[in-house]
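pasting for ref. prot 1 ->
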Amino acid sequence: MTPLAGWSTRQGTLARTLEMQGHGLHTGRRVRVRILPATGDPGSADARGIVFRRIDLEGGAADIPADPALRRAQPLCTMLRASDAAGVRTVEHVLAALVMCEIDHAVVELDAEEVPILDGSATPWIDAIRACGRIELGSPKRFIRVLGPVKVEDGARGARREMRIEPAARYEVIVHNDLKGFGDMTWSGELTPDVFAREIAPSRSYGRVKWALPAMLAGYVKRTPILRGARLSCTASIVGNRVIGGMRLPDEFVRHRVLDLVGDMAMAGAPLLGRVSALRPSHEMNHRLVSALMADRRAWEWAECAA
Protein backbone atom coordinates (compact mmCIF):
# COMPACT_ATOMS: atom_id res chain seq x y z
CA MET A 1 0.00 0.00 0.00
CA THR A 2 1.07 3.61 -0.54
CA PRO A 3 2.54 5.26 2.58
CA LEU A 4 0.03 7.31 4.57
CA ALA A 5 0.67 10.94 5.45
CA GLY A 6 1.51 11.27 9.13
CA TRP A 7 2.53 7.62 9.56
CA SER A 8 5.86 5.82 9.30
CA THR A 9 6.54 3.19 6.66
CA ARG A 10 8.35 0.78 9.02
CA GLN A 11 7.32 -0.95 12.22
CA GLY A 12 8.95 0.44 15.32
CA THR A 13 9.81 0.05 18.97
CA LEU A 14 11.18 2.27 21.74
CA ALA A 15 14.74 3.52 21.44
CA ARG A 16 15.28 2.92 25.17
CA THR A 17 13.43 1.63 28.22
CA LEU A 18 10.62 3.82 29.54
CA GLU A 19 9.99 3.96 33.30
CA MET A 20 6.88 5.36 35.01
CA GLN A 21 5.16 4.95 38.35
CA GLY A 22 1.86 5.92 39.89
CA HIS A 23 -1.25 4.42 41.42
CA GLY A 24 -4.10 2.41 39.96
CA LEU A 25 -7.46 4.11 39.45
CA HIS A 26 -9.40 1.07 40.67
CA THR A 27 -7.02 -0.80 42.98
CA GLY A 28 -5.43 2.34 44.44
CA ARG A 29 -2.13 0.45 44.62
CA ARG A 30 1.23 1.93 43.76
CA VAL A 31 2.76 0.40 40.65
CA ARG A 32 6.02 0.75 38.77
CA VAL A 33 6.05 0.25 35.01
CA ARG A 34 8.88 -0.33 32.59
CA ILE A 35 8.20 -0.49 28.86
CA LEU A 36 10.98 -2.51 27.27
CA PRO A 37 11.95 -2.15 23.60
CA ALA A 38 11.69 -5.15 21.30
CA THR A 39 15.14 -6.53 20.50
CA GLY A 40 14.33 -8.40 17.29
CA ASP A 41 12.35 -8.02 14.10
CA PRO A 42 8.66 -8.96 13.97
CA GLY A 43 8.24 -12.71 14.25
CA SER A 44 11.01 -13.12 16.82
CA ALA A 45 10.32 -13.95 20.46
CA ASP A 46 11.06 -10.34 21.47
CA ALA A 47 8.90 -8.68 18.82
CA ARG A 48 5.38 -10.03 19.13
CA GLY A 49 3.23 -6.95 19.40
CA ILE A 50 2.41 -5.40 22.77
CA VAL A 51 2.76 -7.80 25.71
CA PHE A 52 2.06 -7.05 29.38
CA ARG A 53 4.34 -8.78 31.86
CA ARG A 54 3.51 -9.19 35.56
CA ILE A 55 6.73 -9.52 37.57
CA ASP A 56 5.15 -9.55 41.05
CA LEU A 57 3.68 -13.05 40.99
CA GLU A 58 4.92 -15.84 43.25
CA GLY A 59 5.25 -18.33 40.41
CA GLY A 60 7.47 -16.01 38.37
CA ALA A 61 6.81 -13.53 35.57
CA ALA A 62 3.69 -14.04 33.46
CA ASP A 63 3.15 -12.62 29.97
CA ILE A 64 -0.27 -11.40 28.85
CA PRO A 65 -0.54 -10.41 25.17
CA ALA A 66 -2.78 -7.51 24.16
CA ASP A 67 -5.31 -9.84 22.57
CA PRO A 68 -9.09 -9.30 22.54
CA ALA A 69 -9.56 -13.01 23.27
CA LEU A 70 -8.01 -12.40 26.72
CA ARG A 71 -10.26 -9.50 27.63
CA ARG A 72 -12.38 -9.99 30.75
CA ALA A 73 -15.41 -7.88 31.68
CA GLN A 74 -14.68 -5.35 34.42
CA PRO A 75 -16.53 -2.18 35.41
CA LEU A 76 -15.10 1.06 34.02
CA CYS A 77 -11.90 -0.34 32.49
CA THR A 78 -10.39 -2.91 30.13
CA MET A 79 -8.82 -5.98 31.73
CA LEU A 80 -6.78 -8.79 30.19
CA ARG A 81 -6.37 -12.16 31.86
CA ALA A 82 -4.18 -15.04 30.71
CA SER A 83 -5.14 -18.70 31.03
CA ASP A 84 -2.95 -19.05 34.16
CA ALA A 85 -5.16 -16.42 35.89
CA ALA A 86 -2.55 -13.63 35.76
CA GLY A 87 -4.32 -10.40 34.87
CA VAL A 88 -3.71 -6.73 34.21
CA ARG A 89 -6.37 -4.04 34.29
CA THR A 90 -6.85 -0.50 32.96
CA VAL A 91 -4.70 -1.10 29.89
CA GLU A 92 -6.59 1.17 27.51
CA HIS A 93 -4.67 4.44 27.92
CA VAL A 94 -1.19 2.98 27.51
CA LEU A 95 -2.37 0.86 24.54
CA ALA A 96 -3.81 3.95 22.85
CA ALA A 97 -0.55 5.84 23.39
CA LEU A 98 1.59 2.99 22.08
CA VAL A 99 -0.42 2.38 18.90
CA MET A 100 -0.67 6.10 18.11
CA CYS A 101 3.06 6.64 18.80
CA GLU A 102 3.71 3.76 16.38
CA ILE A 103 5.29 1.49 18.96
CA ASP A 104 4.34 -1.78 17.32
CA HIS A 105 6.36 -4.09 19.59
CA ALA A 106 7.20 -3.70 23.29
CA VAL A 107 6.86 -5.39 26.67
CA VAL A 108 4.94 -3.47 29.34
CA GLU A 109 6.42 -4.78 32.60
CA LEU A 110 4.63 -3.96 35.87
CA ASP A 111 4.84 -4.97 39.52
CA ALA A 112 1.11 -4.85 40.32
CA GLU A 113 -2.22 -5.74 38.75
CA GLU A 114 -3.14 -2.33 37.32
CA VAL A 115 -1.50 0.12 34.92
CA PRO A 116 -1.18 3.50 36.71
CA ILE A 117 -3.82 6.09 35.87
CA LEU A 118 -1.32 9.02 36.07
CA ASP A 119 -3.38 12.18 35.38
CA GLY A 120 -6.30 10.27 33.86
CA SER A 121 -5.29 10.94 30.27
CA ALA A 122 -2.88 9.48 27.71
CA THR A 123 -0.67 12.58 27.53
CA PRO A 124 1.90 11.44 30.16
CA TRP A 125 2.38 8.22 28.17
CA ILE A 126 2.68 10.12 24.89
CA ASP A 127 5.25 12.52 26.38
CA ALA A 128 7.29 9.69 27.91
CA ILE A 129 7.27 7.62 24.71
CA ARG A 130 8.36 10.60 22.65
CA ALA A 131 11.11 11.39 25.15
CA CYS A 132 12.43 7.82 24.81
CA GLY A 133 12.36 8.00 21.02
CA ARG A 134 11.37 5.47 18.39
CA ILE A 135 13.58 3.24 16.28
CA GLU A 136 12.49 1.52 13.11
CA LEU A 137 12.54 -2.22 12.66
CA GLY A 138 13.20 -3.96 9.37
CA SER A 139 9.62 -4.91 8.52
CA PRO A 140 7.05 -2.70 6.75
CA LYS A 141 4.44 -0.88 8.80
CA ARG A 142 1.21 -2.89 9.01
CA PHE A 143 -2.37 -1.75 9.20
CA ILE A 144 -5.66 -3.60 9.47
CA ARG A 145 -7.59 -2.73 6.33
CA VAL A 146 -11.35 -3.04 6.82
CA LEU A 147 -12.99 -4.71 3.81
CA GLY A 148 -16.62 -4.83 4.85
CA PRO A 149 -18.98 -3.42 7.48
CA VAL A 150 -19.26 -4.90 10.95
CA LYS A 151 -21.89 -3.67 13.40
CA VAL A 152 -22.75 -4.28 17.07
CA GLU A 153 -25.60 -2.76 19.06
CA ASP A 154 -27.26 -2.89 22.45
CA GLY A 155 -30.57 -1.36 23.41
CA ALA A 156 -31.37 -3.56 26.37
CA ARG A 157 -30.26 -1.12 29.06
CA GLY A 158 -32.37 1.85 28.08
CA ALA A 159 -30.02 4.16 26.18
CA ARG A 160 -29.29 2.69 22.76
CA ARG A 161 -25.65 1.95 21.97
CA GLU A 162 -24.38 1.22 18.50
CA MET A 163 -20.97 0.82 16.91
CA ARG A 164 -20.03 0.18 13.32
CA ILE A 165 -16.78 -0.16 11.39
CA GLU A 166 -16.59 0.10 7.61
CA PRO A 167 -13.96 0.54 4.90
CA ALA A 168 -12.06 3.84 4.62
CA ALA A 169 -8.70 4.88 3.21
CA ARG A 170 -7.50 6.16 6.60
CA TYR A 171 -8.17 5.75 10.33
CA GLU A 172 -11.38 7.74 10.87
CA VAL A 173 -13.61 8.03 13.91
CA ILE A 174 -17.06 9.52 14.52
CA VAL A 175 -18.20 9.32 18.14
CA HIS A 176 -21.49 10.66 19.54
CA ASN A 177 -22.10 10.77 23.27
CA ASP A 178 -24.36 12.58 25.70
CA LEU A 179 -24.25 13.37 29.39
CA LYS A 180 -27.01 14.89 31.48
CA GLY A 181 -26.25 18.54 32.11
CA PHE A 182 -23.76 18.77 29.25
CA GLY A 183 -25.87 17.81 26.24
CA ASP A 184 -24.90 16.05 23.05
CA MET A 185 -21.21 15.84 22.14
CA THR A 186 -19.53 14.67 18.95
CA TRP A 187 -15.95 14.24 17.83
CA SER A 188 -15.13 13.24 14.29
CA GLY A 189 -11.98 13.27 12.24
CA GLU A 190 -9.03 11.38 10.85
CA LEU A 191 -6.67 9.96 13.45
CA THR A 192 -2.93 10.32 12.94
CA PRO A 193 -0.23 10.27 15.62
CA ASP A 194 -0.16 14.09 15.77
CA VAL A 195 -3.94 14.53 15.77
CA PHE A 196 -4.30 11.99 18.55
CA ALA A 197 -1.58 13.60 20.69
CA ARG A 198 -3.07 17.07 20.26
CA GLU A 199 -6.84 16.56 20.25
CA ILE A 200 -7.54 13.28 22.05
CA ALA A 201 -4.73 12.29 24.42
CA PRO A 202 -5.18 15.18 26.93
CA SER A 203 -8.80 14.17 27.71
CA ARG A 204 -9.24 12.59 31.16
CA SER A 205 -11.28 9.83 32.68
CA TYR A 206 -14.40 11.40 34.14
CA GLY A 207 -17.29 10.73 36.48
CA ARG A 208 -19.77 12.27 38.85
CA VAL A 209 -18.54 12.63 42.42
CA LYS A 210 -21.96 11.60 43.80
CA TRP A 211 -21.63 8.21 42.05
CA ALA A 212 -18.04 7.50 43.06
CA LEU A 213 -18.55 6.68 46.75
CA PRO A 214 -21.47 4.23 46.25
CA ALA A 215 -19.51 2.50 43.48
CA MET A 216 -16.48 2.26 45.74
CA LEU A 217 -18.51 0.79 48.59
CA ALA A 218 -20.20 -1.70 46.27
CA GLY A 219 -16.76 -2.76 45.05
CA TYR A 220 -15.59 -3.45 48.60
CA VAL A 221 -18.72 -5.52 49.29
CA LYS A 222 -18.25 -7.54 46.09
CA ARG A 223 -14.45 -7.67 46.54
CA THR A 224 -14.02 -6.01 43.16
CA PRO A 225 -11.70 -2.98 43.11
CA ILE A 226 -13.59 0.03 41.76
CA LEU A 227 -12.34 3.63 41.96
CA ARG A 228 -10.27 3.07 45.11
CA GLY A 229 -7.61 5.33 43.62
CA ALA A 230 -9.92 8.01 42.24
CA ARG A 231 -8.64 11.51 42.98
CA LEU A 232 -9.27 15.02 41.68
CA SER A 233 -5.74 14.85 40.25
CA CYS A 234 -6.56 11.92 37.95
CA THR A 235 -10.17 12.47 36.87
CA ALA A 236 -12.39 15.14 35.44
CA SER A 237 -14.68 15.18 38.48
CA ILE A 238 -18.24 16.32 37.87
CA VAL A 239 -20.36 18.09 40.48
CA GLY A 240 -23.78 19.10 39.20
CA ASN A 241 -23.29 20.57 35.76
CA ARG A 242 -19.64 21.52 36.06
CA VAL A 243 -16.21 19.97 36.17
CA ILE A 244 -14.10 20.84 39.19
CA GLY A 245 -11.26 22.95 37.81
CA GLY A 246 -12.85 23.09 34.35
CA MET A 247 -12.42 21.06 31.19
CA ARG A 248 -9.07 20.70 29.45
CA LEU A 249 -10.61 20.53 25.99
CA PRO A 250 -13.98 21.36 24.46
CA ASP A 251 -16.29 18.36 24.85
CA GLU A 252 -13.60 16.58 26.86
CA PHE A 253 -15.94 13.71 27.72
CA VAL A 254 -16.54 12.56 24.15
CA ARG A 255 -12.84 12.92 23.36
CA HIS A 256 -12.08 10.55 26.21
CA ARG A 257 -14.53 8.09 24.69
CA VAL A 258 -12.42 8.29 21.53
CA LEU A 259 -9.27 7.69 23.59
CA ASP A 260 -10.74 4.57 25.19
CA LEU A 261 -12.02 3.35 21.82
CA VAL A 262 -8.55 3.71 20.26
CA GLY A 263 -6.96 1.84 23.16
CA ASP A 264 -9.49 -0.99 23.04
CA MET A 265 -9.30 -1.31 19.25
CA ALA A 266 -5.48 -1.45 19.52
CA MET A 267 -5.91 -5.01 20.74
CA ALA A 268 -6.50 -5.90 17.08
CA GLY A 269 -2.72 -5.58 16.71
CA ALA A 270 -2.29 -2.55 14.45
CA PRO A 271 -3.84 0.81 13.51
CA LEU A 272 -6.99 0.61 11.41
CA LEU A 273 -7.72 1.61 7.86
CA GLY A 274 -11.41 2.04 8.43
CA ARG A 275 -14.11 4.32 9.79
CA VAL A 276 -15.47 3.64 13.28
CA SER A 277 -18.86 5.20 14.02
CA ALA A 278 -20.04 4.98 17.60
CA LEU A 279 -23.13 6.05 19.52
CA ARG A 280 -22.51 6.01 23.29
CA PRO A 281 -19.49 3.68 23.14
CA SER A 282 -18.29 1.82 26.23
CA HIS A 283 -15.48 -0.62 26.96
CA GLU A 284 -17.93 -3.48 26.55
CA MET A 285 -19.14 -2.21 23.18
CA ASN A 286 -15.58 -1.53 22.01
CA HIS A 287 -14.66 -5.11 22.88
CA ARG A 288 -17.68 -6.48 21.06
CA LEU A 289 -16.75 -4.51 17.95
CA VAL A 290 -13.07 -5.50 17.82
CA SER A 291 -13.96 -9.12 18.56
CA ALA A 292 -16.62 -9.19 15.84
CA LEU A 293 -14.19 -7.66 13.35
CA MET A 294 -11.40 -10.11 14.15
CA ALA A 295 -13.79 -13.06 13.98
CA ASP A 296 -14.94 -12.22 10.45
CA ARG A 297 -11.93 -12.92 8.20
CA ARG A 298 -13.86 -11.62 5.19
CA ALA A 299 -14.13 -8.20 6.83
CA TRP A 300 -10.43 -7.32 7.10
CA GLU A 301 -6.92 -8.00 5.82
CA TRP A 302 -3.37 -7.04 6.69
CA ALA A 303 -2.02 -4.13 4.63
CA GLU A 304 1.71 -3.31 4.50
CA CYS A 305 3.33 -0.04 3.50
CA ALA A 306 5.48 -0.13 0.40
CA ALA A 307 9.17 0.51 1.04
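and prot 2 ->
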Amino acid sequence: MNTNVVTAYKDAPNRTVTTGGVTYSYRELGPKGGIPVVFFVHLAATLDNWDPRIIDPIAQGRHVIAFDQRGVGGSTGRVPDSVEAMADDAYSFITALGFEKVDVFSFSLGGMVAQALVVKHPELVRKLVLTGTGPAGGKDIDKVARTTYWDILRATVTRSDPKEFLFFNRNATGKPAARAFVNRLAERTVDRDAPIKIQAFQTQLKAIKKWGRSAPADLSTITQPTLIANGDNDRMVPSVLSEDLHRRIAHSELVIYPDSGHGGIFQFHEKFAPVAVEFLAR
Protein backbone atom coordinates (compact mmCIF):
# COMPACT_ATOMS: atom_id res chain seq x y z
CA MET A 1 0.00 0.00 0.00
CA ASN A 2 1.18 3.53 -0.78
CA THR A 3 2.80 4.97 2.34
CA ASN A 4 1.57 8.45 1.41
CA VAL A 5 -2.06 7.48 1.89
CA VAL A 6 -3.79 9.60 4.55
CA THR A 7 -5.84 7.34 6.83
CA ALA A 8 -6.53 9.78 9.69
CA TYR A 9 -9.44 12.13 9.10
CA LYS A 10 -7.76 14.89 11.13
CA ASP A 11 -5.01 14.98 8.48
CA ALA A 12 -7.24 14.84 5.38
CA PRO A 13 -6.60 17.86 3.15
CA ASN A 14 -9.42 20.26 2.24
CA ARG A 15 -10.27 20.10 -1.45
CA THR A 16 -12.86 21.71 -3.73
CA VAL A 17 -14.72 20.82 -6.90
CA THR A 18 -16.96 23.19 -8.86
CA THR A 19 -20.06 22.09 -10.73
CA GLY A 20 -23.31 23.81 -11.70
CA GLY A 21 -22.07 27.11 -10.31
CA VAL A 22 -21.44 25.66 -6.84
CA THR A 23 -18.00 25.02 -5.34
CA TYR A 24 -18.18 22.06 -2.97
CA SER A 25 -15.68 21.70 -0.15
CA TYR A 26 -14.64 18.14 0.64
CA ARG A 27 -12.00 15.97 2.28
CA GLU A 28 -10.74 12.60 1.10
CA LEU A 29 -8.64 9.93 2.72
CA GLY A 30 -7.86 6.25 2.47
CA PRO A 31 -6.48 4.31 -0.51
CA LYS A 32 -7.76 5.46 -3.92
CA GLY A 33 -9.35 2.99 -6.33
CA GLY A 34 -12.44 0.84 -6.02
CA ILE A 35 -15.83 2.19 -4.97
CA PRO A 36 -15.54 5.18 -2.63
CA VAL A 37 -17.57 5.63 0.56
CA VAL A 38 -19.22 9.06 0.57
CA PHE A 39 -20.25 10.44 3.98
CA PHE A 40 -23.49 12.47 4.28
CA VAL A 41 -23.38 14.66 7.40
CA HIS A 42 -26.06 15.74 9.89
CA LEU A 43 -28.06 18.90 10.60
CA ALA A 44 -25.92 22.02 11.25
CA ALA A 45 -22.75 19.99 10.61
CA THR A 46 -19.66 20.75 8.56
CA LEU A 47 -16.66 18.66 7.59
CA ASP A 48 -15.43 18.99 11.19
CA ASN A 49 -18.36 17.01 12.60
CA TRP A 50 -17.37 13.48 11.64
CA ASP A 51 -16.18 11.29 14.48
CA PRO A 52 -12.66 10.14 13.56
CA ARG A 53 -13.32 6.84 15.40
CA ILE A 54 -15.96 6.02 12.77
CA ILE A 55 -14.34 7.44 9.65
CA ASP A 56 -10.71 6.33 10.27
CA PRO A 57 -11.41 2.58 10.52
CA ILE A 58 -13.36 2.71 7.23
CA ALA A 59 -10.53 4.70 5.57
CA GLN A 60 -8.03 1.97 6.48
CA GLY A 61 -9.23 -0.01 3.47
CA ARG A 62 -11.50 2.30 1.49
CA HIS A 63 -11.39 5.61 -0.35
CA VAL A 64 -13.49 7.89 1.89
CA ILE A 65 -14.97 11.25 0.90
CA ALA A 66 -16.78 13.70 3.20
CA PHE A 67 -18.31 16.89 1.80
CA ASP A 68 -20.13 20.07 2.75
CA GLN A 69 -23.61 20.43 1.28
CA ARG A 70 -24.30 23.55 -0.78
CA GLY A 71 -24.30 26.67 1.42
CA VAL A 72 -22.66 24.86 4.36
CA GLY A 73 -19.13 25.29 5.75
CA GLY A 74 -16.70 25.81 2.88
CA SER A 75 -19.21 25.16 0.09
CA THR A 76 -20.69 28.10 -1.80
CA GLY A 77 -24.32 28.82 -2.68
CA ARG A 78 -27.46 28.73 -0.57
CA VAL A 79 -28.78 25.79 1.44
CA PRO A 80 -31.83 24.27 -0.33
CA ASP A 81 -35.08 24.14 1.65
CA SER A 82 -35.89 20.54 0.73
CA VAL A 83 -34.20 17.20 1.33
CA GLU A 84 -34.80 16.26 -2.32
CA ALA A 85 -32.89 19.33 -3.54
CA MET A 86 -30.04 18.42 -1.17
CA ALA A 87 -30.02 14.97 -2.80
CA ASP A 88 -29.75 16.63 -6.23
CA ASP A 89 -26.72 18.56 -4.96
CA ALA A 90 -25.15 15.36 -3.60
CA TYR A 91 -25.65 13.76 -7.03
CA SER A 92 -23.98 16.79 -8.71
CA PHE A 93 -21.06 16.61 -6.28
CA ILE A 94 -20.49 12.85 -6.66
CA THR A 95 -20.72 12.89 -10.45
CA ALA A 96 -18.46 15.99 -10.63
CA LEU A 97 -15.76 13.84 -9.01
CA GLY A 98 -16.28 11.33 -11.81
CA PHE A 99 -17.81 8.47 -9.81
CA GLU A 100 -20.47 6.25 -11.32
CA LYS A 101 -20.92 4.04 -8.24
CA VAL A 102 -20.51 4.83 -4.55
CA ASP A 103 -21.32 3.47 -1.11
CA VAL A 104 -23.09 5.98 1.12
CA PHE A 105 -22.58 6.38 4.87
CA SER A 106 -25.16 8.76 6.33
CA PHE A 107 -26.21 10.17 9.68
CA SER A 108 -29.42 12.01 10.67
CA LEU A 109 -30.35 14.66 8.03
CA GLY A 110 -27.67 13.01 5.87
CA GLY A 111 -29.67 9.79 6.03
CA MET A 112 -32.75 11.57 4.71
CA VAL A 113 -30.69 13.01 1.85
CA ALA A 114 -29.24 9.54 1.19
CA GLN A 115 -32.72 7.99 0.94
CA ALA A 116 -33.86 10.67 -1.51
CA LEU A 117 -30.69 10.12 -3.57
CA VAL A 118 -31.13 6.33 -3.73
CA VAL A 119 -34.80 6.58 -4.71
CA LYS A 120 -33.94 9.03 -7.53
CA HIS A 121 -30.60 7.52 -8.66
CA PRO A 122 -30.61 3.85 -7.66
CA GLU A 123 -27.84 3.06 -10.14
CA LEU A 124 -25.40 5.37 -8.34
CA VAL A 125 -25.49 3.69 -4.93
CA ARG A 126 -24.14 0.21 -4.25
CA LYS A 127 -24.54 0.05 -0.45
CA LEU A 128 -26.28 2.23 2.07
CA VAL A 129 -25.61 2.93 5.75
CA LEU A 130 -28.44 4.85 7.45
CA THR A 131 -27.79 5.96 11.04
CA GLY A 132 -29.88 8.09 13.38
CA THR A 133 -32.40 8.81 10.64
CA GLY A 134 -35.94 8.23 9.46
CA PRO A 135 -38.16 8.04 6.36
CA ALA A 136 -40.15 10.83 4.71
CA GLY A 137 -43.45 11.22 6.53
CA GLY A 138 -41.90 9.54 9.57
CA LYS A 139 -43.68 10.00 12.89
CA ASP A 140 -42.58 13.13 14.80
CA ILE A 141 -39.75 14.09 12.39
CA ASP A 142 -41.46 17.46 12.06
CA LYS A 143 -40.80 18.02 15.79
CA VAL A 144 -37.00 17.94 15.29
CA ALA A 145 -36.83 21.75 15.22
CA ARG A 146 -38.53 22.09 18.59
CA THR A 147 -36.22 19.53 20.24
CA THR A 148 -33.17 21.14 18.63
CA TYR A 149 -33.95 24.69 19.76
CA TRP A 150 -34.75 23.50 23.28
CA ASP A 151 -31.44 21.62 23.54
CA ILE A 152 -29.46 24.55 22.13
CA LEU A 153 -31.01 26.67 24.87
CA ARG A 154 -30.14 24.08 27.55
CA ALA A 155 -26.58 23.86 26.23
CA THR A 156 -26.17 27.65 26.17
CA VAL A 157 -27.27 27.91 29.80
CA THR A 158 -24.73 25.26 30.85
CA ARG A 159 -22.03 26.54 28.44
CA SER A 160 -21.74 23.17 26.73
CA ASP A 161 -21.97 21.88 23.16
CA PRO A 162 -25.60 21.36 22.01
CA LYS A 163 -24.59 17.95 20.63
CA GLU A 164 -24.02 16.77 24.21
CA PHE A 165 -27.76 17.20 24.78
CA LEU A 166 -29.03 16.31 21.30
CA PHE A 167 -26.94 13.18 20.67
CA PHE A 168 -26.50 11.62 24.13
CA ASN A 169 -28.56 10.67 27.16
CA ARG A 170 -28.00 12.97 30.14
CA ASN A 171 -27.10 10.12 32.47
CA ALA A 172 -24.01 8.48 33.99
CA THR A 173 -23.07 6.73 30.73
CA GLY A 174 -24.24 9.41 28.30
CA LYS A 175 -22.49 12.43 29.80
CA PRO A 176 -18.90 11.11 29.63
CA ALA A 177 -19.58 9.64 26.16
CA ALA A 178 -20.80 13.08 25.03
CA ARG A 179 -17.69 14.83 26.32
CA ALA A 180 -15.40 12.24 24.74
CA PHE A 181 -17.19 12.69 21.38
CA VAL A 182 -16.92 16.49 21.47
CA ASN A 183 -13.22 16.18 22.35
CA ARG A 184 -12.62 13.81 19.42
CA LEU A 185 -14.13 16.37 17.05
CA ALA A 186 -11.43 18.80 18.21
CA GLU A 187 -8.55 16.47 17.27
CA ARG A 188 -8.12 18.26 13.95
CA THR A 189 -6.30 21.48 14.73
CA VAL A 190 -5.42 22.88 11.28
CA ASP A 191 -7.53 23.96 8.29
CA ARG A 192 -10.79 23.63 10.14
CA ASP A 193 -14.05 24.29 8.35
CA ALA A 194 -16.17 27.44 8.63
CA PRO A 195 -19.07 26.87 11.06
CA ILE A 196 -22.57 26.74 9.61
CA LYS A 197 -24.39 30.08 9.45
CA ILE A 198 -27.60 30.53 11.44
CA GLN A 199 -29.69 31.08 8.30
CA ALA A 200 -28.33 27.91 6.68
CA PHE A 201 -29.13 25.95 9.86
CA GLN A 202 -32.70 27.33 9.95
CA THR A 203 -33.20 26.41 6.29
CA GLN A 204 -32.04 22.85 7.03
CA LEU A 205 -34.57 22.64 9.89
CA LYS A 206 -37.27 23.79 7.47
CA ALA A 207 -36.27 21.03 5.04
CA ILE A 208 -36.45 18.41 7.82
CA LYS A 209 -39.90 19.61 8.84
CA LYS A 210 -41.06 19.38 5.21
CA TRP A 211 -39.60 15.85 4.98
CA GLY A 212 -41.44 14.84 8.16
CA ARG A 213 -44.75 16.15 6.80
CA SER A 214 -44.42 14.81 3.27
CA ALA A 215 -46.03 11.67 1.88
CA PRO A 216 -44.11 8.46 2.67
CA ALA A 217 -41.76 7.41 -0.14
CA ASP A 218 -41.93 3.90 -1.56
CA LEU A 219 -38.85 2.43 0.09
CA SER A 220 -39.52 -1.01 -1.39
CA THR A 221 -37.62 0.28 -4.43
CA ILE A 222 -34.43 0.27 -2.33
CA THR A 223 -32.78 -3.05 -3.17
CA GLN A 224 -29.26 -2.04 -2.11
CA PRO A 225 -27.79 -3.83 0.90
CA THR A 226 -28.66 -1.48 3.76
CA LEU A 227 -27.32 -1.21 7.33
CA ILE A 228 -29.49 0.78 9.77
CA ALA A 229 -28.25 1.83 13.21
CA ASN A 230 -29.31 4.01 16.12
CA GLY A 231 -29.43 4.28 19.89
CA ASP A 232 -32.57 3.05 21.68
CA ASN A 233 -33.48 6.51 23.01
CA ASP A 234 -33.16 8.94 20.09
CA ARG A 235 -34.91 12.19 21.05
CA MET A 236 -34.19 13.89 17.71
CA VAL A 237 -35.25 11.27 15.17
CA PRO A 238 -37.22 8.76 17.26
CA SER A 239 -35.65 5.28 17.40
CA VAL A 240 -38.88 3.65 16.20
CA LEU A 241 -38.17 5.23 12.80
CA SER A 242 -35.05 3.07 12.44
CA GLU A 243 -37.29 0.04 12.96
CA ASP A 244 -39.73 1.52 10.44
CA LEU A 245 -36.92 1.83 7.86
CA HIS A 246 -35.80 -1.73 8.62
CA ARG A 247 -39.32 -3.06 7.97
CA ARG A 248 -39.68 -1.13 4.73
CA ILE A 249 -36.25 -1.78 3.19
CA ALA A 250 -36.06 -5.44 2.21
CA HIS A 251 -33.17 -7.49 3.64
CA SER A 252 -31.84 -4.49 5.59
CA GLU A 253 -29.88 -5.06 8.80
CA LEU A 254 -30.74 -3.21 12.00
CA VAL A 255 -28.45 -2.47 14.97
CA ILE A 256 -29.88 -0.68 18.03
CA TYR A 257 -27.50 0.21 20.86
CA PRO A 258 -28.80 0.18 24.45
CA ASP A 259 -28.86 3.15 26.81
CA SER A 260 -27.89 5.64 24.09
CA GLY A 261 -29.46 8.36 22.01
CA HIS A 262 -29.20 9.94 18.54
CA GLY A 263 -25.41 9.59 18.74
CA GLY A 264 -25.53 5.90 19.64
CA ILE A 265 -23.03 5.00 16.90
CA PHE A 266 -20.56 7.53 18.37
CA GLN A 267 -21.09 6.36 21.95
CA PHE A 268 -20.58 2.75 20.81
CA HIS A 269 -17.96 3.49 18.14
CA GLU A 270 -15.78 0.57 19.28
CA LYS A 271 -18.64 -1.82 18.50
CA PHE A 272 -20.15 0.00 15.52
CA ALA A 273 -17.03 0.84 13.47
CA PRO A 274 -16.11 -2.85 12.89
CA VAL A 275 -19.75 -3.60 11.97
CA ALA A 276 -19.73 -0.79 9.39
CA VAL A 277 -16.32 -1.84 8.02
CA GLU A 278 -17.46 -5.45 7.62
CA PHE A 279 -20.78 -4.45 6.01
CA LEU A 280 -19.07 -2.14 3.49
CA ALA A 281 -16.38 -4.73 2.70
CA ARG A 282 -18.78 -7.56 1.98
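The mean pLDDT is 97.
The CA atoms of residues 177 and 267 lie 6 Å apart.
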